[in-house]
Amino acid sequence: MYNYELIDNLTSNLSITLKLSYKVTHDVNWLEHRTKTEYTIWTIITGNVWIIINNKEFLAKSGDILLFYPGDTYTAHTDENGCSFIYNRFRLEMGSTIDIMSTINMSGIIPGFYIKAYADKFCERFLSLYTSPQHISLELYSEFLYYLSRVLTVGKRYGIFFYTDSNYNRKIPMIDTILHYINGHFTEHISVKQLSEMSNLSEKYFIASFTSLLGISPKQYIIECRMKLASELLCDPNTKIGAVAAIVGYSDQYSFSKAFKKYFDESPTEFQKQFIY
């Protein structure tokens, strides 16, 4: 089963970028062989789609959802009746360029009978809002975010037919517990040594494994959490920067301002000015 607990623990720092969105139609002559470079969802509207991955063939019917993971190499084709589907390509990031899902397998098929109501609604809204593949309106983006949340929720509840039999073998014992602990205590002093002891690993191996799993070091993850909270607090122009520094775990305003500047490329004062009317 896909590790949804890990995603739940990372949600507060997660950003989703919808890169491309459009309706695709293919006839019997369609034969596609590619390797995915980003996360992709195909929501099948009409017809049948056959997907061959790892020498195994899977059939997706009208109403089914195909989830592709970066690195999936596949061959796709349809039958004499053709097919159509809505194509959505997106990125999951934490911070600026960190793909937190880069080592977690989420590719597979969700049968349509589990998610029909949500898929039908999304397709209806998509077709009414769509203008061009590159032009993604705020309303369409919002519809996609809600749809993606439903896809993941349904996958969590009923399961996904994975393209591969093997699931990700985590290198860090208790990773969900560790992330939950960080999320609840990042405003306090948390040492890497303390976290490594929680996972029963050496400090060096813990750092390497954590970074391999999330694409970000433990220290940087804690900074991500602090900066996210700080940016939310600074949206209130009446909040003092010194107070924010103390709330998010910095001993003085100077250290906080230096860290904030490095992360956002602007000072807390400059950031807060945009919310003064």
From TrEMBL:
InterPro entries in the record: AraC-bd (IPR003313), Homeodomain-like_sf (IPR009057), HTH-like (IPR037923), HTH_AraC (IPR018060), HTH_AraC-typ_CS (IPR018062)
Keyword Transcription regulation part of the UniProt annotation: yes
DNA-binding recorded as keyword: yes
Domain HTH araC/xylS-type residues, every copy: 176-274
One protein family per Pfam: HTH_18
Keywords: DNA-binding, Transcription, Transcription regulation
The organism's place on the tree of life at top rank: Bacteria
Molecular function per GO: DNA-binding transcription factor activity; sequence-specific DNA binding
Protein name, as recorded: AraC-type DNA-binding protein
Organism listed in the record: Anaerosporobacter mobilis DSM 15930
Organism classification: Bacteria, Bacillati, Bacillota, Clostridia, Lachnospirales
